[in-house]
Amino acid sequence: MLIESLPAAATPPPAPARPSSFAIEVPDALLARARAGERAPLEQIYRRFERPVFTLALRICGEREAAADVLQDTMLKVIARIGDFRGRGGSPFWGWLRQIAVNEALMHLRRGRRQAGELPDDGHEPADERALPPPAAADAALLQRALARLPATTRGVLWLYHAEGYTHEEIAALMQRTPSFSKSQLARGTRRLRALLQIEEHDHG
């Protein structure tokens, strides 16, 4: 969950990064069979990564139908390109697959640019990126409703930074923007998310 990746206070040293939901080990033997085109290993890979791909796509795109489309497009590309994966430099298979999923989700947002949106400058100073939202964030349902009310681009920055551990430089490259844009959206999104969670907690308390 997004909130679990944040430390319990605003000022302590950074906590160790929370493992990505994609960090699923795939045996070399299984990968070799998949690269050879065997159907059963490809189906196993699909089952292992179906949930993290769908969750990431849902958090970024905000709609289940869009997330299902991203899942399908991601897995089709994984199947088509799995022969290209060589794990150079010790890069894990899950990281390669996650990159495809993120690219597909962001491509979906770019195709629907009118719905993407981002939070404008709210005149506040940059917030502590590790600041913890209110206790209501521990409730997954409240968090999901609050996230859904954020602009898609802002929501994507929050999820990639907090849940998947991407840096601002990496997010900027993925979104074809600047690191400053990523930092500003994270700060504005964090403030807005805190406010929305307080509203959700009050309405459902």
UniProtKB/TrEMBL annotation:
Q: Which InterPro entries match?
A: RNA_pol_sigma-70-like, RNA_pol_sigma-70_dom, RNA_pol_sigma70_r2, RNA_pol_sigma70_r4_t2, RNA_pol_sigma_r2, RNA_pol_sigma_r3/r4-like, WH-like_DNA-bd_sf
* Protein's name in the database: RNA polymerase sigma factor
- Which keywords accompany this UniProt record? Sigma factor, Transcription, Transcription regulation
Gene3D superfamilies per UniProt: 1.10.1740.10, Winged helix-like DNA-binding domain superfamily/Winged helix DNA-binding domain (1.10.10.10)
Q: Which family does it belong to?
A: Belongs to the sigma-70 factor family. ECF subfamily.
This protein's source sits in the domain of life called Bacteria
Q: In which organism is this protein found?
A: Luteimonas lutimaris
Show where the RNA polymerase sigma factor 70 region 4 type domain sits. Answer: 142-193
Residues of the RNA polymerase sigma-70 region domain: 45-114
One family name in Pfam for this protein: Sigma70_r4_2
